[in-house]
Each structure stands twice: as C-alpha cells, then as structure tokens.
Input
Amino acid sequence: AEEGQWVLMATGRSPTNIAVIKYWGKRDEALILPVNDSISVTLDPDHLSATTTVAVSPSFPSDRMWLNGKEISLSGGRFQSCLREIRKRAQDVEDEKKGIRIKKEDWGKLHVHIASYNNFPTAAGLASSAAGLACFVFTLGKLMNVKEDHGELSSIARQGSGSACRSIYGGFVKWCMGKNNDGSDSIAVQLADEAHWNDLVIIIAVVSSKQKETSSTSGMRDSVETSPLLQYRAQTVVPERVLKMEEAIKSRNFESFARLTCADSNQFHAVCLDTSPPIFYMNDTSHRIISLVEKWNQSEGTPRVAYTFDAGPNAVLIAPNRKNATILLQKLLYYFPPQDNDLSSYMVGDKSILS
Ligand code: 2P0
Output
C-alpha cells in the first residue's frame, strides 16, 4: 500500500443466544435498560452466528457497513452509540510488520468499514440482532485495542440491541437489569461456561421463514405502555424466577429448568396478548408444538423437553440428552411431516452443537 493507504483489519465471530427467562420491556429506550433481568443460553458459534470483519484505513472517507454482502445504512443511532463508545476507549495500536502506528487520539479521525455475515439465512427470522451487535462491538474493540473487560463490552453491546449484551459470553448468561440511571450496572455476567451442562440438546423447529410483523423494539414499547401484566411480571414474577433458574442451571436440574423455561415463554407471550393492540408472535403450528410437548411431558410425569418461543413462531426445544432429542424429533416428524410445508426444517444439536 502507498503511504497513508494502509488498511488494518480484525475479524470475530459471535453466536446468537436463546433466552430462557425473557427480556421484554425497557425502562430507558435510549440506553436500552430493561425492566427485568433475563437469562439465556449461548449457542455454539458454528451455528446461528455472525462473523464480522472491521477495517480501518486513512483512505476511507466515511463509515460504511455491509450485511451479507449488501450495503446497509449506518445512520441508526444504535450502531453509532456502539461505535462512539468503543472509539472513546481506543488505545494506541502498533503493527510493526505493516509499519502502522495509530495513537489513541487519532482513532477519532479514522473511518471504519464493517462487513458482517450471518451463517444462517436472515429471512428465517432466527438471525437476531444479538449475534451481529455483539460481534461488532467485540471485533471493533479488538481492532482498536480496547482494554475493557467483558462486562464493560456487554454494556456497550447492550446499547446496540438489548439481547446482544448476553452474546458477549458463551454458556449460560444473565443480563442484570441494574439500578443506575446511566446504565453502568446494566451488564451481562456469565453464570456457567460452555462446558457446563453440555449434554443439553437444542432443536430449532423453523415454523415460518417469514419476517415477523411486529419488531421486538416496537412490540416491547407497546407492552410497557399498555400491559398491566408486564408490570406484575417484571416486579413480582421474574425476580423470583431468576433465582430459581440460576439454581436449576447450577445444579443441572432439568425438571426445574424446563418448567421455568416453558412458564416464562408462556408468560412473555401472555404479555404480548395483554398489549393493546395485542401482539401475536406464535401461530397455530407453534401452539400445536406446545400441546405436543405438554402432553408428552405430562404423560411421563416429568418434563422430557422444554420449549421456548421468541418474537416469532419458531420453536426452540431443549432436551436434556440425545435420547430425548431423538424421541422429540420422531414426534415432530410424525405430527409435522416435512411435506406439510408447515414446519420447513429442523436444526438439531447439543447446546454447543447445532447441525
Ligand atoms: C430475549 N427478545 O430475551 C427476548 C425474548 C425477544 C423475545 O431480546 O430493542 O432485539 O434491540 O433491545 O434485543 C428481542 O429484543 O430488542 C429479545 P432491542 P431485542 O431474547
């Protein structure tokens, strides 16, 4: 490269995460501060993850971003917040091989190019913003030699998309809502690492590949403004449930884990129904999957599998082991034969492998 034409790059990969205690509702829209704690499982990066390359060069006249090869606008406030927060913490960088030296005060003058890919079709409605924003913050931090710990990075990712703060860690993660008005204590912490309870198997049943009709951001705003159930959930139900879920995860108590996961998914969707106008994320197929699992669990007297649904109709099913996952798959294939076109695909794997 000519003098001043150098390019410095960093690449990172972040998986998406599935909440078992749901985040739904903000107490501060700008800083993205939630009304309750949430807990999630981070998937293996080989599946449902974002890979992002961030490049910086004096030859870039502006910040630009490409998602799956298509340029997208960076004008939204959330990306800008993450970019600003990382830039503020940038340190000196020296690459002797390339003869590049960037002083920390010079980062403000340099523009970035960001290229991000999801390894799962975005159209399937599963690729959440969580993996993308977490990856962007983490990789940009690496490029700019940011020294902050994971907690601080999670707080920056949170400002890109709430659920993104949980994807900064693998394993089981809790997003603590925090008490402060400035968001300084609204961070994610790891409850248990990737190796813990890795015989769990996660199956994602893709019920619909259509984009959801109500975005999470506007849906939860409406819920905060209109749902009395949301207030009760945030103040009374979740605090106790979070403690029980932490205990269930720690002791690998699948029965408790499954009961709490299903109950919390159902309450989240009840809050959606309690919203005015009501929000319907699940469809008939989702409801049939719930019935199938509930009947099976009840006939066995103890949960064989847990279900949870996010802001869309796709089912996330969690089994305690391969045996139960296999039986579940047989049931799904029997009741939802692939030619139905109802349930278009299954993704199977343990919590660290989805294939
Ligand atoms: C969750 N969801 O805990 C919940 C459960 C969907 C249902 O986090 O506005 O994309 O960017 O903070 O993080 C989806 O909401 O919303 C979400 P913003 P986000 O995973």
